[in-house]
Design goal:
2 copies of one chain form a homodimer.
Chain A (H helix, E strand, L loop, with lengths): L9 E5 L6 H14 L6 E4 H7 L8 H20 L4 E4 L5 H10 L3 E7 L2 H7 L4 H6 L21 E4 L5 H14 L15 H14 L4
Helix pairs in contact in A: 1-7, 3-4
Chain lengths: ~210, ~210
């Protein structure tokens, strides 16, 4: 298998806090790299809040500004052939549609997980605080979440493993012609290929 | 001549308002495209203030935040092989050095033009207002500008035409191995080549 340059596209995750956006994004990223698509950028909520949107809060206006900035960067990457994954809550339909309009190749992934399950899991303890009224503007509790009406992919993270969700997304990317189809055998790497890929990742600064 | 993918790099312009950063950046961009390097992004001050930094002012802190955001985007583009040009005043040495540290292939271009000349030209009428005290934090008048100590290229826009300044930068990019050297004859395009390049530009969404 050669390492090859894929087309640029943006996989846009949307879903509640704790639904698994970043987790599944990272699995998708790994799987793309296993297939020789090395230059994948993941823009998750935390990275973006640090590098593009420090100082912004969680009002509708600030959230929209945050999403516009992510969309701007995704647009630049996509039109230059760099596959990228955005993983932010992005609760408002209108601004997601704005992102869709800005970005040439846009694949919306709805990361669905029932609120009860998220409240029950509450990995970061945020839902507890939000319910107690300690976090204002918390999506799903004190702020709205508008479900996508027609996302390219829907994953259900209370029913699927991250691996399965990621495979759904990869199949959609194949179907849309953004990545080449591979058979199971082809997707396994020889040690030489693995070393080649690792070298490439080092050159690109992804790993030490 | 083939259109070819160049290495990623960031040409970082720094200089006073009105010194010609955006003008020269656009000429560099055109010249790179003439050489078949099509995917060049120009991030100038206005574009960035609109898309990444709306709401930020011109205090040192806000300027630094603005530059950090530009550096973040340039870093992403550069490490994915996309040549890009940043054209913001970026008056503070420390934050330019931060950008240099973040970005793998960084070429600092000092756009030098004496303040008297800029005040005299005053294309946008900003210097007049700044001197009258109507614009606070105006670089060169009521805010400092720290000259680069060791830029890769210095251009003098009161003495050189934009074309000449751009050529200086291209020669440096050649010398550093970021773009291939071309002879004068090679750099001329046949009508077929020109059409091919225009088609590529349309596909990439740069032109209609």
């Amino acid at each position: 298998m050669d390492t090859h340059k894929s087309k640029g596209f943006t996989v846009w995750f949307t879903g509640l806090s704790g639904s698994g956006k970043t987790t599944v994004a990272r699995v998708v990223c790994d799987k793309l790299r296993e297939r020789g698509i090395m230059n994948v950028e993941v823009l998750d909520g935390d990275l973006v809040r640090t590098n593009l949107s420090k100082g912004l809060g969680f009002s509708k206006e600030d959230r929209d500004t945050n999403i516009k900035r992510i969309a701007f960067v995704c647009h630049l990457l996509t039109r230059n052939g760099v596959p990228n994954i955005a993983a932010a809550i992005s609760p408002y339909r209108e601004i997601r549609d704005y992102a869709r309009g800005e970005i040439k190749h846009f694949i919306e992934v709805y990361v669905k997980c029932p609120l009860e399950v998220l409240i029950d899991r509450d990995v970061k303890g945020l839902y507890k605080k939000a319910i107690a009224g300690e976090i204002p503007h918390f999506t799903g509790i004190s702020d709205p979440y508008e479900e996508p009406l027609n996302p390219e992919v829907m994953i259900e993270t209370d029913k699927e493993k991250p691996e399965e969700s990621a495979d759904k997304i990869l199949r959609k990317l194949e179907a849309l012609g953004y990545i080449p189809r591979v058979t199971r055998a082809e997707s396994r790497l020889s040690p030489e290929e693995e070393e080649k890929i690792k070298k490439r990742l080092r050159d690109l600064g992804y790993i030490e």
